Amino acid sequence: MARANYTFTSESVSEGHPDKICDRISDAVLDAFLTEEPFARVACETFATTNRVVIGGEVGLSDQEKLKDYLARIEQITRDCIKDIGYEQDQFHWETVEVTNLLHEQSAHIAQGVDSTADKDEGAGDQGIMFGYATNETPELMPAPIQYSHAILRRLAEVRKDGSEPDLRPDAKSQVSLRYENGVPVEITSIVLSTQHASEDQNSDYIRGIVEPHIRDVLPAEWITENTEWWVNPTGTFVIGGPDGDAGLTGRKIIVDTYGGAAPHGGGAFSGKDPTKVDRSAAYAARYVAKNIVAAGMADRCTLQLSYAIGVSKPLSIYVDTHGTGKVPDAEIEKAIGQCIDLTPRGIREHLGMNRPIYARTAAYGHFGRTPTDDGGFSWERTDLVDALKKAV
What we know:
- By secondary structure, the protein is of the alpha+beta class.
- Helix content is 33%, strand content 25%.
């Protein structure tokens, strides 16, 4: 039986965190190729350290001349990402950072198959397991600790970029500990924030004075009590940040990207991978289905697992766990899923419209719990499967 009373903690990191800079660059590269060709193949990894960014991996377009042109654009894409994030430090500046582009084209055989792949039922590109999760404890049907950890950093990025808080800098981490009673969040026991700032003369109390009003704006007021502990820049000074303070790498924040540890993770990272890779597309589809199950009122919580084998199109298994909150037996929900959505790699991409340049925006503040946009961004957050699921059970 699941525990009813407990405290659970999740963390987030800002768009200026070294790993998130790398995720952003990798996904910006992906978007650039998808802008040119919806069935472009991209597997892009980025590494960042003091005044240096290294990008590697494989990319493919059906037109090899266009491929050469796009490979030549990688350096500017990288600088544009760093500039937008806000890095103008002596040891990490968008204008002076050294960019090494080691991206190369895929094999000729794979490149020749790009167009035809759009017209056939291709298999999964690799074996693997992917998880999706949803819970009704927030309006976004996300676990509250991770959702509000993201919200804190999103707000601080907004006020940093609009100039209203000029002492803040891009690198930051947040952490929220939330106490549950009878499975319902009732109180934030602690708030942790470490944010890069402008001067060594600015101590923890000074930074708390800047950030506390913004943090209170995005958290439910009733959850912050006299017992809530605040830890703002607990080590004191945090002036040297970003890749000058710590190296970054694509794909190292997969728990931040998903559910903050409240649900399992299959292990595959998302950023820099085109949607033919089930590490990304099937994880998005699993979230989409789990969210619709909860939105349909079939359960208060839902974990969904999908599994794939390389070269095999259909998932090998579909597993549902509603954690004792289901209004419909889990086995019946599993059967209904197969009737409502095609979970082959191609079926997922077509259902969710994933062959579009919509990925750079996912690189920070979570891939889930976001608002779907008119251009197809965060399509996996829609709840348009509710009626079909209800009819199928």
